[in-house]
Amino acid sequence: MRYRIPNNSQLKLYKFREGLPYFFDTGEIIVLTNDAGDFHTVSPGEFYKLLKGEIKEDSSLGKILTEKNLFPGRIDKDQMAIWLARKMKFLNAGPNLHIVIPTLRCNQQCLYCHASRRDESRTGFDMTEDTAKKVVDTIFDTTSPQITIEFQGGEPLINFEIVRFIIEYALEKNKEIQKELYFSVVTNLSKIDEKKMKYLLDRSVLFCTSLDGPQKIHDANRPFSKNSSYRETIKWMTRINNEYKKRGFDTNIYHVDALMTTTRQSLGHAKEIVDEYVKHGIKVIHVRPLNPLGFASKTWSKIGYTTDEFLKFYFEILDYVIELNLKGVEIQERTAALFIIKMITDRDPNFLDLRSPCGAGIGQMAYNYDGKIFTCDEARMMHEMGEDLFLLGSAGKDLYVDLVGSPITRSILVASLLDAYPYCQGCAFKPYCGICPIINYMEQGDIFGSMEHSSKCRINKAILGYLFNKMHNISNEMLQIFKKWSIFRSRE
Ligand code: SF4
Ligand code: SF4
Question: Which-ligand-closest: CA of 463?
């Protein structure tokens, strides 16, 4: 690994002064940014000259900085406001992602399960048709012109009849309301069969599953008494992807997405994990750190690790992913790709945890099996752990306007607004960053965490520092790779 992971106290944040861009010292280069997310990287020597006023506007560096709206004393706020408004137009839309839990029951016992699943044999944890109808009615009250209904769990396909009911009822309702309507299902793929697959593909439902790496790692993380969870996942992932191809879907959009959750078992196996993804033709690996939610809070001593250990592992993955790209292999790491979209394009990648404010209640809502509504799925997970701080109301009882406008939604939004944090106000990474009040609450007991002690701040800062180092004097080949990672493909 070539990139040195700095700790929070080594990262130098410069206080914003009127008329100056933000500065960030990665230890190797200086990153200059403005509120709209324009950036340029300079050497420490150039930076020193810039601060002393020795860089003239008509010099080659001066011209670049002026063009990027970064030249000290010449920052055009009106131009910045136009760009910012374009990037933040999601603020006017309303929730478009609606996470529905048809059941909390699951047939696997993943060591890190964030969802506090219940055993498959239990009763009383399934959504009823009556509740499902009220949930869909609430979803369609959204002001967003686009709706994605995402089934999560538990294992949602255990309650397949309710999944089917929700899809059919939503499609019927949409004949009149005419929104852009999409469905996706997050599933371990062990409860699917040919009939269910056909039904879901006929309705263009997107699949997302978990793949933690080669069989040894995956099965250790995701014990399954009946079979190897790895074998089930690979069997159905291959089957569904072949079916998408056979039906003529654009496989850049329609394929089984996979999430990779990092546990202690993963550390030291970065290359094998990436190779596993490449072997199955998966083009995106989303490396996620563990969060202390659900079972993971109880099994932490067995599967957890420090932020430093995670970052070391993450950069081993990212270095290898880039090495493969340079050899022509098509694979990207999702978190890095999300940051790159924010860095080199003028659009928001619609990833609700990397926004300021975040998507809680205004970009997404989560509906539990019993109809209770939360700002997001993590808030619902907190409820399953006995914490009701983020409960907004219930489907069929509370009005959309009261859910979105609730003091709970407002508090989370303020607590995820980077400008509300003195530590973030001078940070050059603010235009690309996002923080999570629920993780703050879990780690520090307060939705307004201290960013100096936040693992999420540390991870974001380290990844952004790595990416900006790559951007410095970037080769055309590398830039083309990053551009490829930032391509947007519409499901239409
Ligand atoms: S949370 Fe993000 S914006 Fe705030 S200091 Fe950390 S990296 Fe910078
Ligand atoms: S509170 Fe956290 S998990 Fe929920 S939407 Fe905001 S960032 Fe995401």
Answer: 1
* Mean pLDDT, the chain, whole residue set: 91
User: Based on the domain organization, do 250 and 127 belong to the same domain?
Assistant: yes
- Which of 376, 412, 421, 433 has most ligand 2 atoms within 8 Å of CB, for mutation? 376
- Kindly report the backbone phi and psi dihedral angles of residue 20, in degrees, each rounded to the nearest multiple of 5, phi listed first: -110, 150
Query: What is the atom index within ligand 2 of the atom nearest the CA of 363?
Result: 5
Beta-strand relationship, 105-106 and 118-119: parallel
Q: 106 alpha carbon to ligand 2 midpoint, in Å?
A: 24
**Structural domain harbouring 30:** 1-87
Q: How confident is the model at residue 490 (pLDDT cuts 50, 70, 90)?
A: low
Same domain, 70 and 103: no
Q: Establish if 428 belongs to a structural domain.
A: no
pLDDT band at 355 (very low <50, low <70, confident <90, very high): very high
Report yes or no on 439 lying in a domain: no
Atom of ligand 1 nearest to the CA of 356: 3
- Out of 28-32, 124-128, 305-309, 325-329, pick the least confident: 28-32
pLDDT in tens, 49-92: 988 889 999 999 999 999 999 998 888 888 888 888 888 888 88
435 lines ligand 1 (CB under 6 A): yes
pLDDT of residue 15: 42
Cβ 460 under 6 angstroms from ligand 1? yes
Averaged pLDDT, 453-462: 93
What's the whole-number mean pLDDT along residues 343-362?
91
Closest residue to atom 4 of ligand 1, CA basis: 424
Query: Cβ(114)–Cβ(99) under 8 Å?
Result: no
Q: Is the domain of 276 the same as that of 384?
A: yes
Count structural domains, the chain: 2
Distances (CA, A) of 164 to 120, 170, 241, 392, 418: 19, 10, 21, 26, 40
Ligand 2 pocket, Cβ-based, cut-off 6 angstroms: 352-353, 358-360, 375-376, 378-379, 412, 416, 436-438
Higher pLDDT, residue 301 or 280: 280
